[in-house]
Amino acid sequence: MNLFDSVETLQGVGPKMAEIFKKAGIKTVRDFFYNLPRDYENYEAPTSISEIRPGKVVIKGKIDSISTRRARRRNLSVTEGIIRDNTGSVKVVWFNQNYRAKQFQPEKEYYFTGNFELRNGRYSLVSPSAAEVAEIDPSVGLSPVYVAHGSLKSHVFRRLVANSRSKFNEIPDLLPTVKPGTRKNALFLAHFPNSLKSVKGARDYLAYEELFELILAAKLNRQENEKLKAVQIPFDAEKIKKLVGNLPFRLTNAQRLAAWEIFKNMEQGTPMNRLLQGDVGSGKTMVAALASYEAILNGFQVAFLAPTAILANQHYESLVKILNNFGVKIALLTGATKKKTELKRDISDGKIDLIIGTHALLTDDTEFKNLALVVIDEQHRFGVEQRQKLLLKSPDGLAPHLLAMTATPIPRSLQLTIFGDLDVSILNELPKGRQPIATKILSEIETKNSLYPKIRETINAGQQVYWVCKAIDDDPRTETMSVKSRTEKLKGVFPKAKIEFLHGRMKPAEKDDIMERFSSGKIQILVSTTVIEVGVDVPNATLMAIENAESYGLAQLHQLRGRVGRGKLASSCYLLTTGDMRPSKRLMELEKSTDGFYLAEVDLKLRGPGEIYGALQHGALDLRIASLSDTRLIHRAQVDVMKFLQKPENMLKYKELMVGITKYQQITTLN
Predict the structure, then answer these.
(1) What percent of the chain has pLDDT over 70?
(2) Closest by alpha carbon to 370, among 427, 458, 419, 300?
(3) Quick one: CA dihedral 624, 629, 634, 636, positive or negative?
(4) What CA–CA distances, in Å, run from 115 to 87, 88, 127?
(5) Is the pTM of this model over 0.85?
């Protein structure tokens, strides 16, 4: 069996199903076997309906009276039915799962697993998973649950895996460091568990496999980068001291150290590949300005890439203030730039030293005369191909030095594992004068008496407010209020205030216009989704309210909070919770700390790598099993990778492994 054959070669997968699989990212036989269960339902002790209590339950019964109707609100369908066993009956409801109405046969028994809760004054089983009793091995009582992808539902995939049961024995080993047959046994037990203990053993091996691939990719990237040649940029101490001495503020010790690390890198004949990470407001742009000035002093050009036009404009204004008096020719290139042809000609002729821009820098007709340094802000917002495109613009076959910046603090274990031996500089100090952001958890019922007076006080003082909402549209299932509805409500509370809303579905020009008006003080309260997570400096914005705070990850909450406290004014952030449950540990950690690096470590322990690295690469890492907080497994994989690399013939011998790590090489490289 060739694991890279089309998934269509498997039993029961025809052209139509293959197309459905493709949309779910399952193209090959390998993808199929590695589409692992997200959970396992335990059917050993179902609850009889007469004894059901609120909370998560497993019911064994038959279903009838099932039908689907449209709800009053748009884009919502409701499928309702009755589940019966020999002790009674209970209502069941699914939202936007129309296929459920045709899934069940009245004469068959099913296991239903879900939450039994109060809805509209009546208890119901809400959106349960379902499995046919006849398909579950009674001696095991465990059933895998797969992530649904469109029309590819968990029960459909479970049936197709059962069809391919005999194929598992043909799966070859992937790694040279394990006993023969370990991989096929682990994959089999992940899909066909005989106990929870066996599932843990299987997942431990598959986690090790993932970490091995990831670490190997990072090490190979490092080796490849060290083969490249780059322009050597000598350090000009006197001129750098003169620039620093003319600044209206003192650099922090962290900024000085980071700048020194960068200067030493750029003196080398191999390209710098450095990540500059610092909390919001820690002064990353200043460090980038010093690096840029050093390159320009030596006669080279610098490209500074930002993810949005607003952020590019902000960097342009900041860098002009810092470098304009030192003879540096600076230009801004965005989609809105006029006379692009003339500007691009000046860039290619070498008349512009520092070019700040958005994707406009990546176009084929944007050419440089002697590009030696590339600075990328919020580098995760750009794909690998986009970064490569800019790095290839350096002439003479020399790779430019790369300085990537991120405001998402990365835990130490993530740095070592994902980026291998990538050089990392950390800004863990805030400039003097910055005040910590006071953070407070508020329940929904406290909003009127505690938060509204604070907002009124803030706008009366001439300062501005962010109000963050989870949804663009109202959701009757969760009673979540949309940005539009919240805006109307706030207009009723603060009738004289200038209030606008912002969300990701708006056209770019419309979003830029609203942010521009907020930046200039023409909008007093901005109601927004998380589209503001990475945005412009608005030092006058001093209060933020985050609605449904429990529904966000810790890293994202910290990033959002960083939109206030950008100046010297005292700022505050309110985390609004619903219901009367005790706040979660992550909210309490956020309330007591403003240290992004500490919070990143907490987040890693609480949530695993997905949320943190998802913020960096939009989920591209896609670790399905491995936890980057598992230091024991990481160490084992690191040791085994180094042994693997000591034998160059391994690169040819383990062909599937080399294909598999390609995606990780693309993700972990900054070049």
Answers:
(1) 87
(2) 300
(3) negative
(4) 19, 18, 8
(5) no
